[in-house]
Amino acid sequence: MPPLENVVSFHRTATAPVVKPPATPLQAIRDWFEKQDGEVRREIAGMAVLLLFECRGAPEIGSQEWCEYLRRWLDQAGLSNHAVIGRALTFRTCFEYFAESRFTESGWTLSEKTALKILEEAKLHPNSEAARLAPTAQKMLDALPARKSRWIEVRKSWRELAGARLTPRALRIWSTSHMQRGRRDSGREL
What we know:
Blueprint: H1 4-7, H2 25-34, H3 38-52, H4 64-75, H5 81-103, H6 105-124, H7 129-165, H8 168-189
């Protein structure tokens, strides 16, 4: 029988393609996090400080240091499948709780009303707490349209990630494939 090469032409490559193992759910979250605008990353890190890490105080909430802390938490090596899934679910729940007001029209309306109320109270009581907060409230009102637009994009990208990679079914599939790959890899060492 003639060699198959004589019957069918093959295009050979110098090296076989490298198959990259699927990213962990935490790597998927980290990749999503890094694609966000710097201000959004700082807000998300501030959320993590309060809800995930239960930290309060210095450094300033949302600072670059907290972004690094969140990155390390998402990148920690050597976690078991259960720990990876637990962290992914914890992040998802905390993020969605935190971001809910940024994902809805009513949340933005409430933010606008709160800022306007602070400005009104500051005019009536120039030495009050509201007067101290008035410059921040004004900045928030000025930036509201741009922030709202930015968070609409964040919501869209988050829902794509969460719907594809962070559902219970997707996490089970990842865990199962990761365990099977681990068994195959350990079998090669023998």
